[in-house]
């Protein structure tokens, strides 16, 4: 009887492992799909990463890959190495490609030209998430309307995709919900500076401090410099 129970438990655990997205697909696995191109994504993109230099190589990403691990906008602001018929390039994820199938990217024309022929319009690609080619520490964008009562905070200039953000209140870590527009949201955040804990897609965790939020809602978004960066 004990052997039968052990066998059933073993089969159940095996099924969990086989059908778990995290178990079957590491964040930096190679993806296969297609690429199209678009001139949008530099301003007013879904992930609110403005301003973006007009000569930067950027991309929109399909919903299935964007929300890695069930986290909204998990790959927003990340960097992808993309390979096409003519070569490779690295692009910055700034927007959503809502109609794109799994594996699909909608590249800026300057990125598309590096890996394919513009006249083709659509090409087969392979891509993976890579460490961002950046320097310096995080920057935080505080969304318009934020105050100590309600705030939406975005992490920018991160080496790896940001999966989780928490703040410390009365000795407890409070989870902030990540939204489709690439900000972490919470309420009643307190009157002092915020001690935050940020987790990347590899599970690496760093702590930082953000200056206290306004008493009443801000009319404009603003940014503040961070003091840390994800480790290599």
From TrEMBL:
Alphabetical keyword list: Signal
Name of the featured protein: Extracellular endoglucanase (Expansin)
Chain coiled-coil ranges: none
Annotated signal peptide: 1-25
Superkingdom of this protein's organism: Bacteria
Classification lineage: Bacteria, Bacillati, Bacillota, Bacilli, Bacillales
Ranges of residues in domain RlpA-like protein double-psi beta-barrel: 77-126
Pfam families found in the cross-reference section: DPBB_1 (PF03330)
């Amino acid at each position: 009887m004990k052997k039968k129970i052990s066998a059933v438990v073993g089969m159940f655990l095996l099924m969990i492992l086989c059908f778990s997205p995290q178990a079957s697909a590491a964040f930096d696995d190679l993806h296969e799909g297609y690429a199209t191109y678009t001139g949008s994504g530099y301003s007013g993109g879904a992930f609110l990463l403005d301003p973006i230099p007009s000569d930067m190589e950027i991309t929109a990403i399909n919903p299935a890959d964007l929300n890695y691990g069930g986290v909204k906008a998990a790959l927003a602001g990340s960097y992808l190495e993309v390979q096409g018929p003519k070569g490779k390039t690295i692009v910055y994820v700034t927007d959503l490609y809502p109609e794109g199938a799994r594996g699909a990217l909608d590249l800026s024309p300057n990125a598309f030209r590096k890996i394919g022929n513009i006249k083709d319009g659509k090409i087969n690609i392979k891509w993976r998430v890579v460490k961002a080619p950046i320097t310096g520490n995080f920057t935080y964008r505080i969304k318009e309307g934020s105050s100590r009562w309600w705030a939406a905070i975005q992490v920018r200039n991160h080496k790896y995709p940001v999966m989780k953000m928490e703040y410390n209140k009365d000795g407890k870590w409070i989870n902030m919900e990540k939204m489709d527009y690439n900000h972490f949201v919470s309420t009643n955040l307190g009157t002092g500076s915020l001690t935050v804990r940020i987790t990347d897609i590899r599970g690496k965790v760093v702590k930082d401090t953000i200056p206290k939020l306004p008493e009443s809602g801000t009319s404009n978004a603003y940014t503040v410099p961070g003091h840390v960066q994800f480790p290599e």
